[in-house]
Amino acid sequence: MTTPEPVLVRRLRLVDAVAVVLSACIGIGIFFSPAEVVARTGSGGWAMIAWAAGGLVAIVGGLCFAELGVLRPRMGGQYRMLREAWGPAVGTAYAGTGGLVIGPGAIAVLAGCGTDFLAQALGVQPSPAAWTVCSIGILLALGLVNWIGIRRAADLMDVLTLAKVVTIGALAWAGLWMALHDAPRHDTSPFALGTAPTPTGFLHAMLPVLFATGGWQQVLWMGGDIREPARNIPRALFLGIASVLLAYLAVNASCLWLLGPQAAAASKTIASDAMSVWWTGAGRWLAAAIGLSAIGTTHVILMTTSREQAAFGQTGDGPRWIAPVDPVSGAARRSVGAMTLWACALLVIAGRDGISSLLDAVVMADFTFLGLCALSVLVLRRRHPDEPRPFRCPLGPVLPLTFGGVSACIAVTPWLLPEQRPWALAVTCIVGGLLALGWVRSRRAGSAA
Asked: What angle (nearest 5°) sits at the alpha carbon of residue 98, between those of residues 95 and 100?
C-alpha cells in the first residue's frame, strides 16, 4: 500500500536550485580537506591533480544525474530512480541507509564541526558536554526552520550560500594578491609534482576530495519543488558544479602558495593559517565564516534528505508516518523531526572524538548508491527508449559506466585501509540488512497481489 504522492507547489527558482548545489557542496570540507589531500599525495602538484580529478568525477556524475532529474522531476529523485531502475529492495536499502547513516550522519558531522569553528572564532575551548549541547542546539534550530516551511528554509539557504561564496572569494583573493606581489617566496614551486603516490594512496586522498565536492546530487531530491525542472535542473547542476570546481581549485592554489606544501600538509586549520599569512587578524574572522558555512550545509542536507525520506514513506517501502507533506507550507514535518532527532542521537553516540569515523562511514555509504544511480541512466534508457528526455547524457554508455566504476573504487577503498575496516564492516552490514529486508517485503507484496 502506498500513500498518494502530494501535488507540490513548485516554489523553488533556478537561483534556489543552484544554491542547493553550492550549499550542499561548499560546507567545511574545502576549509580543512586541502591539508589532508596534500599529506596523502605527498606534494602540492599531485594534490591539485586530485582536486581536478574530484571535479571531473562531479562533472561526469552531474551529466548522468541531469538526465535522471529531467526524466523524473519528483520529490525524492535519487530514491525514486533507484527504486524504478533496480527494484524496491535496492530503493529500500538506499533510503534506509540514507535515513540511518548518510543524511543524519552528515548533518551530525557538520553541526559538530560548525560548533568547533564558532568556538574558535569566539576564542573559547568548549568541554565535550558543552560541545554536544551547542551542536544539538544548532540542529534543533535548523529543524525548526525546516518545520516552518520550504520557502523559509530556501530563503535561509540562499543567505548562508552567499556567505560561503564570499568566504571562498576572500581566501582565493588573498592568495592571488600575495602571488602578484611575489610573496611569500618559495625555494621550489608549491605546485611541483614530486614522487607519484601509489594507486591506493591516491584513492585514499580522493576520499576527502569527494567529501568536499559531493552533495550536488541533492538537487534531485528537490525535483518536485523546482520550477521548470526540464530547464532548471540541468542548469543548476552545470552552474553549481562548475562554480564549485573553480572555487576549490582557487582555494587550493591559494593555500599552497601562501603556506607551501609542507606547512599545508601539517596544518590543522589550513584556511585560517593561510589567511593569517595575508593578514594576521584574519584567523578568527575566517573561523566564524567557516562555522556559518558548516551550518548552511547542515541546513541544506536536512532540507533535502527530509524530503527524500518523505518520498520513501509515500511509496510504502518506508514508514508511512514520515510520508505527509503539508500542502500549504510544503514542509515534510514528520520527516524533518525524525531526521533532526536521529542526528542528535548520532552526535551523542559518536562524541567529539568519533566525528571523523562517522564521516568515513557517510562517504562509503553515499558512493555505494551514487554509482548505482548513475547506472540507472542505462537501465531506464533500455526500459523506456521512446520516453522524452529533454536532456540526454552525452557519449552513450561511457559516462554512466565511468562514474559507476569510480564510485565502486571509492566505496571499496575503506576495506583497503586497516583503520577503516570496522566502519566499512558496519556500513556493509547495514546496507546488506536493508537490502534483505526490502527483498523480503517486495516478495511478500508480490505474493499478496
From this structure: 110
* Residue bearing cell 522531476: 73
Cα 265 from Cα 277, distance rounded (Å) = 16
Of 405, 142, 443, 93, the C-alpha closest to 296 is 142
**Per the CATH hierarchy, to which homologous superfamily does domain 14-443 belong?**
Amino acid/polyamine transporter I (1.20.1740.10)
Total residues belonging to the chain: 449
Burial of residue 435, with CB atoms counted within 10 A of its CB: 0-12 exposed, 13-18 middle, 19 or more buried = middle
Beta carbons within 8 Å of 302's beta carbon, 6+ residues apart: 103, 107, 139, 142, 143, 146, 336, 339, 340, 343
Q: How many CB atoms lie within 10 A of CB 39?
A: 17
Residue 247 to residue 47: CA distance in whole angstroms: 15
Residues 6+ apart with CB under 8 A from 248: 30, 51, 54, 55, 212, 213
Mean pLDDT by 10 residues, the chain (449 residues): 54 76 71 81 89 88 82 70 88 88 88 85 86 92 83 72 76 75 72 83 83 73 70 82 85 84 78 75 77 80 82 80 77 86 89 75 83 91 87 88 88 78 83 86 67
- Distance from C-alpha of 194 to C-alpha of 263, rounded to nearest angstrom: 16
The C-alpha cell of 87 is what? 527494484
What is this structure's pTM?
A: 0.75
DSSP state of 100: I
Residues 6+ apart with CB under 8 A from 69: 77, 219, 220, 223, 229, 233, 234, 237
113, burial (CB in 10 Å: exposed 0-12, middle 13-18, buried 19+): buried
Measured CA to CA, the distance from residue 15 to residue 218 in angstroms comes to: 15
CA distance 310 to 333: 9
What is d(CA 22, CA 4) in angstroms, rounded to the nearest whole number? 32
Residue 135's nearest CA partner among 126, 146, 144 is 126
- Residue spans per domain, the chain: 14-443
Report d(CA 220, CA 202) in Å as an integer: 30
